[in-house]
Amino acid sequence: MIRMGRKQGMITAFAKHSWQICCARDRNMTLALTVAMMCLGTLLANADEGTQSIRFTKDWRFTKGDPAAAETVDFDDSKWNTVRLPHDWAIAGPFNPDEDGYAGKLPWKGVGWYRKEFTLDWPAGSRIYLDFDGVMAFPQVYINGQLAGKWDYGYTSFRVDATDYVNLSGKNVIAVRADTTNHGTRWYPGAGIYRKVMLEIREPIHIAPWGVCITTPKVTDDSATIDIAVQVENHKPAEVSSKVTFTLIDASGNDVASASMDGTIAPGDSEFKQTLTIADPQRWDVDHPHLYRLTSELIVDGKLADSQATSLGIRTIEFTADDGFHLNGRRVQLQGVNLHHDLGPLGAAFSTRAAERQLQIMKSMGVNALRTSHNPPAPEVLDLCDSMGILVWDECFDKWDRTADRIHGKPSLQEHGERHLRSMVLRDRNHPSIIVWSIGNEIPDNEEGVTPERVKLMAEIVRKYDTSRPTTIGTCFPHQVAQGVYDSLDVVGWNYLRRYANHRKLLTEKPILYSESASTLSSRGFYALPLAYTKTDYNPGLQVSSYDLNAAAWSDIPEVEFDLMKKDPFVAGEFVWTGFDYLGEPTPYSHEAKSSYFGIVDLCGIPKDRYWLYRSYWNPEELTVHITPHWNWPDHVGAKVPVFVYTNGDSAELFLNGQSLGRQEKGVRSDRQANLAVGKQFSASSTRPSFEADLAGDDDMDSKWSAENDSPVQWLQVDLGKSESIKCIVIEFEKEAKWYGYELQVSPDMIHWETVARKPVSDFPQWGGSTASIHKTDIQARYARIEFDSLSDGNHASISEFAVYPDTAQSMYYDSTYDYRLRWNDVTYEPGELKVVAYKDGKQLGTARIKTAGEPAKIRLTPDRTRLDATGDDLCYVLVEALDKDGVLCPLAENQIRFQVEGPADIAAVGNGNPMSQELFQTNSRRLFYGKAMLIVRANEGHPGQITVTADADDLEATSISISSNE
């Protein structure tokens, strides 16, 4: 039970203010200033004694199920579990191996109850509110047995006015019922009160929730105009005299502007408006995210009734149709990622430190933008983005159906959109990091889908509350452009495969964002041989190779997207799907796996190989030299093991056991298999003007042969000039290969033809697919020919390249990889040391080396930080690795590691990044996945001291590390 009175309220209120002031600064500085403000409590008692903000997260009781009368005051909850908020009831498991993997195989569906007892000691007239950052789903909030409020979307924040239901002097009981039964989702949503709750106590006259609105309509190098609007609530029956003061403080603590205004406040809602002007403003930017603090004080009858501190950044934004995105007058290429809201092994239960770590890892990779897919994030995420210089696409919904908690079209889109877009925009509008509001994602034009009228409705709701940023949507339906669906939006986001091409033709004046790109797939530490021949050539063993050559059928590998952004500078930039693996959506093994393969970083935050590819291109000022794969291939001695290097250099030399394997340069395809058909004589059944048969053999994927009409009876053939040994024929079609049915034939003399392959038209995969067909052969021939016999509706015979090889070969789709990574495709494996020396502009840049490891012999523990705050929320991520006796990482180790934590801390979760693993997250051991795992330690609240973490395993030498937890 917690007891709250006026003296404690004063201290807590100012502790909150100090956090708001300093949330953009160093975390230790925040703590120090909080303590300092608390020490000033006696001096400030009269100024704010009627205001209190309490983090309402401790000592809750929880049960899964729906017991009768659980909302009543005298209900016996003594056998329920004691939990701390934020809380995700499903993340503890167990996993259901028979469940489809779309939502993580976890038990998130059902009903859960939370209860908490607390005591108030406040005078009559005090206003009592409960602010929920997020509850999954359909929460009903009871105070002392009475329904005080409810909400109908699991991802938006809401306030419950508890004033009429609480005992201001005595015991109270809050009960919250969460019901996920009817929630629709395409990923793991979590379950329960998964974000923080605040108890807010206010005077009868106070600043409204999210009631301060700040804009910067005019910004130059010399000055900035800051417009302020403050909403005030008067719960008294008569008007009162008042004064509102505003003080603007810079990052150094200096007052740079102030103003005040007198007036009267009538019962109900009132608004105060003021304008400040400052000289020589410090701009908020991705490289220098300067923040100011505005303090708004409400004085009623000569006494301070309320105050609020709001961080703000001074900057200008502009999306252009032809030159992308501009921040403070200069073009900034958006290098963004999509992130779902779960935090891997922690589930949906929000943790500021876990989110901070995610963003730090992304920022180091070169990320400057975040899309909050597909819902508003926890508010702390936006605080972090403000302080770190990360631009934000703030998104409210996925679809407008059950995923938005609209059941059978109820409530109406207007009512639902008004409620939740208002929540998002009012809560988030003062964050300088936010550059665009999104009303949805990939919404089809079905019964609950998009129409021009519905899109306009949603966009206008956003503009009602903020006109300082554009509105957008993420979409993948090019046909909707001609229907006028997006005419009312300011910007349109497009997902995958350059689907924005039709937009560019028809909406030439409307800016474009690439809202989802890549969707490359990989499992950290796993490598499959031979290399993939096409992007959808997946390994049958339920892991995806980290050679970074596989993507979802509807998407592409990173280099294809890099090329696209170079080719189309009118696009503001890309948001990669996704920065981190997440629970659910485990394409391509949708039934078997529990978590995704999309992430650039695995579920635990361990970078995959392509992290270093992105870093080398997006963060070129920082040294990157990374070798792929590992060098433990006992079954491949004497066989070919390709080696890739990711570096911000332009070339590199590779050494195996001291012997040079040659130097490769970016942009040079010297190691690619030679195409025997290049420059040879082609002929065809028919041709369209400017699309002659020879264009199918010019080694250029941007040109093509096309038949003159859509008749399926067409053919194309090549004369190699002489008989050749043919081991592989690769056909690169204009569109997805699934749409073409044909026979592939070869001949030594144009008289005797042999059919070597047949392929019918197909509708698989459902979305997208490779444009290449790979046919392995072992034949001697001079002529090769494709005869079409069927085409899907709307297609005609058309081939970009008809390639013939004397050995197995990849699709020419992978040609772009030679521009961004360095490839040695024919390294003969032998154990030892692989070393690379990278160069830039002819000068040595850096080196990297990997070694063949022996048997696992010991454990290495590497904490991400060694000093924690004893807040009950701070975390330490400890990387766990197996080493051989010489200290070399064992990349194939899968030992079961046991953990013990001594001192004022607990194990928050364990994980290893394996999408197939169904080991519990909340336990004290974990099997290594390709040599690595992660232990997450949480410091206890109010108990500083030394923490000792020990790891041991059968047949491995145990090890320990120390972490300190501080006041």
TrEMBL record:
InterPro entries: Beta-gal/glucu_dom_sf, DUF4982, FA58C, Galactose-bd-like_sf, GH, GH2_Domain-Containing, Glyco_hydro2_dom5, Glyco_hydro_2. Residues 656-807 form the F5/8 type C domain. One of its GO terms (biological process) is carbohydrate metabolic process. Gene3D superfamilies: Galactose-binding domain-like (2.60.120.260), Glycosidases (3.20.20.80), Immunoglobulins (2.60.40.10). GO terms for molecular function: beta-galactosidase activity. Residues 1-47 form the signal peptide. Its EC number is 3.2.1.23. It is an enzyme of class 3 (hydrolase). Keywords: Glycosidase, Hydrolase, Signal. PANTHER family: BETA-GALACTOSIDASE, BETA-MANNOSIDASE. Belongs to the glycosyl hydrolase 2 family. This is Beta-galactosidase. The gene is lacZ_3.
